[in-house]
């Protein structure tokens, strides 16, 4: 049996966005994230092992990563955004395999939509940061 290639694969989509395909170690699918967000996560956390699919809530499956610096397992969306405690990361198109700024949203019981959108804008700017050049 051949070993699965878990190397992130960088590519540019038809609109010119730099993205990365992240093969999931325990599933025959992949997550897609913004390259700058993923590169900045790796710069912040160090070596990130291949994401895996976690069936945590019994209904949905979420790409999950182990963060070596904090020693936590978190969803890929949460790892990329690094939101404050209490905020829940949701997916606008209901697909947690598409982890781009346009598909991510924040929800919190105390925050109205305007507040959540403001926090989301700040977190996206920070997550995208200055693009770390680790890909072509």
The helix fraction, in percent, is 10-25%
The end-to-end span amounts to 31 Å
Order of helices and strands: EEEHEEEHEEEH
Structural class by helix and strand composition = alpha+beta
Low-confidence segments, given as residue ranges, are 132-136
> Total strand count, please?
9
Q: How are the strands ordered across the major sheet? A: 1-2-3-8
Q: Tell me, rounded to a whole number, the average pLDDT.
A: 86
Largest sheet descriptor: 4 strands, mixed
> How many structural domains can be distinguished in the coordinates?
1
* Strand portion: 25-35%
Indicate the overall shape. globular
- Supply Rg: 15 Å
What is the overall number of helices? 3
Characteristics:
alpha+beta; 24% helix; 136 residues; globular; three-stranded antiparallel beta sheet
